[in-house]
Amino acid sequence: MPKPDATDGLDPKPDPREEQLTDQKKNPLEVSDAETSIPVEPQPAESLEDLTADVSPESQEAVQDFLVEAAQQNEAANDAVPDRKNKPGPYIAFEHVSKSFGDFDVLKDVSFSILPGETLCILGRSGVGKSVSLQMLMGFYKPDKGRIMVAGEDICGLKERQLQEVRRKVTMVFQNGALFDSISVGENVAFPLRERHDLAEDQIQQVVRGLLDMVGVAGMEDLLPSDLSTGMKRSVAIARALACQPEAVLYDEPTTMVDPLMGHLLGDLIARLKTQLHLTSIVVTHDMRFARKLADRVVFLHQGEARFFGTMEEMDRSDDPILREFLQLDELVLPV
Ligand SMILES: Nc1ncnc2c1ncn2[C@@H]1O[C@H](COP(=O)(O)OP(=O)(O)OP(=O)(O)O)[C@@H](O)[C@H]1O
Ligand SMILES: [Mg+2]
Q1: Is the CB of 140 within 6 Å of ligand 1?
Q2: Which pLDDT score, from 0 to 100, does residue 118 have?
Q3: How far is CA 154 from CA 13, 73, 143, 246, in A?
Q4: Which of 31, 38, 147, 28 is nearest to 86 (CA)?
Q5: 126 CB less than 6 Å from ligand 1?
Q6: Is the pTM of this model over 0.90?
């Protein structure tokens, strides 16, 4: 069901409180003590058993080795992010980013940041630039003004070849999965593994089967993407993203257009990947229950601006009328 426009039928008069900014918005790139205290505990390798509980015994060892390698690389990458004022710097940051398409200003001076291993949820009504923000992070669009930092590097001036390196670190799970239609599900997941040129065929097959088991689509490796439901395609897209051993994953509306059970499974999986693989994640979602479960911090986009940026608790305390209205409407449209 399409989400109703939050201003439909409501008084369009400007509310003076609309101009109030939260402390976070005034200073969105400062990382406060409270923010740096978010625990991102190193996980022992055994804890990956939880993540791989549904993997068949014959693939379990291969996929666990693969994930332990990914987790260790991510820990090292997170530690390598340059500090700011002797505190961990953000893994990803939008710094005063503006973007227009023709006369239409999609993003206006938008700033937010994500610490290594954190999950940020991007909230906002349809058309506010959530997907465009993710695509900018992948280097598909460049900002007109401002900087976009990934792992301490400004990606805006990078050439296509260098952007491909960034896309190895940061992968995106598109809403429709964006799988290669003409090759099997298994080959879709194997694709990044084959590109490494350091894995034997037997290892590739085991990791593929293990990842598919893990994301809840066991035994589907020989099907074509067109044989799968929307939720299954998204699960396969997550498996393919994990096969890249990324440092960060961007999810665009991972739980929309799937049934509640599938939505719950995907949500659970994303939460476990975050803690167990030290993945930095951005999740675009309309689903507040999902956001509450996952988000360390939230950015709320409205009319091109980052109207709120802060923790979930700060969001709940915010008296910004536009944000409150968004949250109230969201409660109305959520299925019980
Ligand atoms: N390549 C493009 N050329 C012109 N306009 C674009 C382009 N891509 C996006 N837009 C416009 O930018 C605005 C933001 O689009 P975006 O897809 O980021 O919205 P969104 O917040 O993801 O919405 P939804 O919740 O519906 O997915 C929209 O008005 C869209 O029409
Ligand atoms: Mg979108």
Answers
A1: no
A2: 92
A3: 40, 21, 12, 18
A4: 31
A5: yes
A6: no
